[in-house]
Design goal:
heterodimer; A: mainly alpha; Cytochrome Bc1 Complex, Chain D, domain 2; two-stranded antiparallel ribbon; 5 helices; 2 strands; B: Cytochrome Bc1 Complex, Chain D, domain 2; 2 domains; 12 helices
Chain lengths: 154, 266
């Protein structure tokens, strides 16, 4: 876990991605990213900073982040915040931007047994409903927007 | 007939008219066995009050209908349930505590729904009832009601063990786009809120249950399908072996909890 740079090229499956490395069209077009020290993804998935306002909306949206299912957030107009995960108030004081990004992309890298879904991952899943097959829960843009929003929680 | 239900409830020794509120760390009586807590203890006070009163419990509509069906002749063999089993209050007592069981040729587990349909097709030469039909839900609830208050006591040893192991593996296996296992919600997080839903231990002792959200009575397999779909996993068919094995495993997790059918849930 503590090895320096783990490069993850996420295709439809690892074997396909590796054996067909020279074929241009990959079935799942996930952005490649680098995990640093098993604890953070320092670089933006889109190469640009996200939009915190849109991120707040995506965090609330039940078909996108649906973060309120498990977390309390400083979003007073929404009732019934969950308490399965920690309160995210002040999360930017506790974690760097890269650390937050990794927890959104794939929190299982940090905690193998976590209930928190990997929001930007399509490989290694089991019996995914047809209409969600090969799709990530959040787009790279959504991830960046939510990261930007969480970075405002100081 | 209603009086009979209440009598059996009292014999079962279960608390009637519980009034304590959710937040109170109250004495849950028969609904708590060691660290096993029935879904009853996670339901709201109002919901518990409906379950406590058979006259208010809407599930009784289905149960009453099934009681009529118990003695009505159907099928080419000219028989009813009663032709073979006489009074349900005697012959069906305890059934809900031990099912699912191995089927006759020892090739699969059968639950109560499947046993009812097996009796219909093989003994009565009548058509099987559809899953989630009023008839099958009602008869399942009526049969299970005859064990109300009795502790769940499924066998998991001997030839049953492989099925139990399969059910257990299912419970701990991640699935769906959200990549969660049953255990993530019902073993790791009971008592926590997922948005407005208070997570319970996901016990099976109250099924079929009248769920206020459904406005209808529903089977345990409907609940499994719902929990699978919520995590964006492809659900299995009603009565699939995967679900019957899971049912066996859940019942074993709830060993000792009282049969509560028909329960009422939020």
């Amino acid at each position: 876990m503590l090895r320096a740079l783990a490069v993850l090229a996420v295709g439809a499956t690892f074997s396909v991605a590796l054996s067909a490395a020279t074929i241009a069209a990959e079935p799942a077009k996930l952005v490649k990213y680098e995990i640093k020290d098993g604890n953070s993804i320092p670089k933006s998935l889109t190469g640009k900073p996200g939009d915190a306002k849109k991120g707040r909306e995506a965090a609330i949206h039940r078909k996108k982040g649906n973060c309120l299912a498990c977390h309390t957030l400083p979003i007073p107009e929404q009732s019934f915040h969950g308490d399965v995960g920690p309160d995210l108030k002040g999360v930017a004081d506790r974690y760097s931007e890269g650390e937050i990004r990794l927890r959104l992309v794939n929190s299982k890298v940090v905690n193998e047994d976590t209930i928190m879904p990997a929001f930007y991952k399509t490989d290694g899943l089991n019996r995914v409903m047809k209409k969600f097959k090969g799709k990530t829960i959040l787009s790279a843009q959504d991830v960046e927007d939510i990261v930007a929003y969480l970075m405002t929680l100081k | 007939m209603r009086k009979l239900y209440i009598a059996s409830l009292l014999i079962g020794g279960m608390a009637l008219g519980s009034t304590a509120s959710q937040a109170e760390d109250k004495d849950w009586g028969a609904y708590k066995v060691g660290d096993k807590l029935s879904g009853y203890t996670y339901a709201t006070k109002e919901t518990r009050a409906i379950q406590d009163d058979d006259f208010e419990n809407p599930a009784q509509i289905w149960v009453d209908q099934a009681e009529g069906n118990w003695s009505s002749v159907e099928g080419e063999a000219g028989k009813s349930c009663e032709s073979c089993h006489n009074a349900a209050s005697d012959s069906m007592k305890g059934v809900a505590t031990r099912y699912p069981v191995l089927n006759k040729n020892k090739a699969a587990m059968v639950n109560v729904e499947q046993q009812i349909n097996f009796c219909r097709t093989s003994q009565m030469k009548a058509k099987a009832w559809k899953w989630e039909s009023a008839e099958l839900l009602g008869m399942t609830a009526f049969v299970k009601l005859q064990s109300r208050g009795m502790p769940v006591n499924v066998k998991i040893d001997g030839p049953v063990t492989p099925y139990y192991e399969k059910g257990k593996a299912f419970y701990y296996e991640r699935r769906g786009q959200l990549d969660m296992a049953c255990k993530h919600c019902h073993e790791d997080n009971p008592g926590k809120y997922a948005r407005a839903n208070l997570l319970s231990q996901g016990q099976s002792n109250g099924f079929p249950t009248y769920r206020l959200k459904w406005q209808k009575i529903g089977s345990l397999h409907r609940r499994f399908r719902g929990c699978n779909k919520n995590i964006r996993a492809q659900p299995f068919a009603y009565g699939a072996p995967e679900y019957v094995n899971l049912e066996l495993y859940l019942n074993s997790r709830g060993q000792g909890l009282p049969v509560e059918t028909p329960s009422v849930r939020n």
